[in-house]
Structure formats: C-alpha cells, structure tokens
Design a protein that fits this description.
Distance between the termini: 44 Å
Shape: globular
Radius of gyration: 18 Å
Largest sheet: 14 strands, antiparallel
Helix content: 10-25%
Number of helices: 3
Structural class: mainly beta
Strand order of the largest sheet: 9-8-7-6-5-4-3-2-16-15-14-12-11-10
Strand content: over 45%
Number of domains: 1
Order of helices and strands: HEEEEHEEEEEHEEEEEEE
Number of strands: 16
C-alpha cells in the first residue's frame, strides 16, 4: 500500500471513530465513502436479554460548561500513530423558547496527516434540557475533497423532523421536507448525552439500550449492549468503569458486530474514558486526554 493511500485511510478511520464512536457509541458512521456493502445491525436482529427503555429520562450526568477532549491512535504492524483529536463542549442556549444544551463536537486530523488528508468535522446538537430530546442538528464534514452538510429541525411532540437541507459534495440531496420519526428519536450527537443519564444499576450483563436514530435523512435502530463492570488504568488514574459494546456498521474498514468496546466512569458523570476497536487492517484507540466542568466529582477514581 502506498504511504499516501495508507495515511488517507488512517485519517478517515481515526476521525470517524473519534467523532462517531465517542459521540455516538452505538453507531459507527464510516461516512458515505464506504456506502458499498454497508449495513446497520438493527435492534430486531439483536440477541438480547432485556431491552432497556431510555425514553423520558432526566439529565443527571452533565451540565453546561463541560469540556472533553480525546486523542485517537491507530495501530498498524505494531506501530502506534497519533491520528487526530476531537473536542466536545456544552453551552446553554434557547431554541423555540425552550432551554437547550448546545453541544458542539469538532474533530481534526493530527498535523502530520494534514499534508496528506486533512479532516475537519463539526457536529452540533441542541438538546432540550427538560426532555433530553434534540430540537436542532447541524453537521459539516470536510474530509479531503469530500464534504457533507446537514441541518435538521426536530419536533418531538409532532413526531416529525424537518430536513432543512442535506448536501453531499455541495450537491443538494434533500431540502425542505418533513420526515416521520417515532417517540424518543435522537440525532447523531445527542444520543451519547441522552444515554449517559440512563440508570445502569439495575442492568444485567447482556442487556441493551435501544435507540431510534435519525441519520442522514433516514431512521435507524441501533443499540448499546451492557458488558458489566471493569477497572481501567488511565493517565488520570485507576477507575471503576462500566463497559459497553455498540452495534457497528459493516464496511470496507469495520467488521460488523460488537467488537468496539467503550469504558465509561462508574459514577454519576458516566464519562467515556477510552474506546478501542479492531479494524479489518490494524486497530484504533481513543483516550480522554482533557476534561473540565464536570457536573459531579469523579468518585469512580480509586487511586
């Protein structure tokens, strides 16, 4: 494989995982560059013990002012390479006279990759502070010459989402259309914050959290499977954690199934600390490297 081609693949893989696996740990969007042969594992196809209801849950885990930053590494032939970073920031705003959490996630390739394949992805969700449902979603993706832009307005009480526009490579794909959505539908970024507040204490190993996801103009059923508790050594110390395995897209890069593993703090923050996943070629890890503005103390730290 030529070095330029390899670096392009690494950059796309790493930023896709960093932005999507962290922002949405139950659906890997490997971008439309991998549309051929790709499918999503639906909730109906799951081998589940219990399906956990995540509708109408209060926010107990995060607040305005929270800042998270992750660094992504790619491993190929026993060599770990820094591939990119992603940040997540929350502010308080108002949408349609509703108080919302405005969450912004930005992902960038590492400087060493920008010479070959520059990535700058920006995701925004406006999450109703009372219902924990999105009211607005904006996405802007720039990966090399590839671009994608989405802007959706959610109306949960009317079970519909208004697609202001969907663009791909600057060409209009959809505009000014209403799409039916079931109750509790989430967008790509809102889902992680919604499920962070779910009560996992009564879950058993193998139980799943299903999520209705509105993604690129279509409705998908995805899930997050609970794997139990673990202890994770991290740069910030040793933590008691809960482990989850999301459903994954099968593509040229990812194997389908539940190979991606996410560790989150076993405390009221439910803070994602690390994600790792094998790929068809190599593997990838994403680590939390900076945080501030947490709602609760990190009581899961044990040293």
């Amino acid at each position: 494989m030529a070095m330029n081609s390899l670096k392009k693949k690494i950059a796309t893989i790493a930023l896709g995982i960093c932005l999507i696996a962290i922002a949405l740990p139950f659906s890997m969007d490997a971008t439309d560059q991998f549309d051929s042969g790709t499918h999503l594992i639906s909730a109906d196809a799951m081998n589940t013990n219990t399906s956990y209801d995540v509708c109408n849950i209060p926010n107990t885990s995060f607040q305005a002012g929270e800042h998270l930053e992750y660094k992504v590494y790619y491993n190929w032939t026993a060599v770990w390479m820094s591939a990119g970073r992603a940040t997540f920031d929350i502010t308080s705003e108002t949408v349609r006279d509703r108080a919302v959490h405005h969450v912004v996630s930005i992902g960038k390739t590492a400087p060493g990759f920008n010479w070959f394949f520059k990535v700058y992805d920006r995701y925004e969700t406006y999450l109703d502070q009372e219902t924990m449902l999105p009211l607005k979603y904006v996405r802007s993706v720039k990966e090399g010459k590839y671009t994608k832009e989405n802007r959706f307005e959610f109306f949960p009480n009317e079970n519909r989402v208004h697609v202001d526009y969907r663009k791909r490579m600057k060409k209009l794909q959809q505009e000014n259309e209403d799409v039916y959505i079931p109750n509790c539908t989430q967008d790509l970024l809102s889902s992680i914050y919604y499920t962070r507040s779910a009560n996992y204490e009564n879950m058993e190993v193998g139980d799943v959290i299903p999520v209705n996801l509105f993604l690129d103009g279509e409705l998908e059923e995805v899930y997050l499977r609970y794997l139990g508790k673990d202890v994770l050594k991290h740069k910030f110390g040793k933590f008691n954690c809960v482990k989850f395995a999301p459903s994954l897209l099968e593509s040229d890069v990812f194997e389908g199934g539940e190979d991606l593993i996410l560790w989150a703090t076993d405390d009221d923050n439910r803070l994602p600390l690390m994600i790792e996943s094998p790929l068809r070629v190599g593997s990838v890890k994403a680590y939390l490297v900076d945080y501030s503005g947490l709602r609760h103390p990190l009581t899961s730290r044990i040293d």
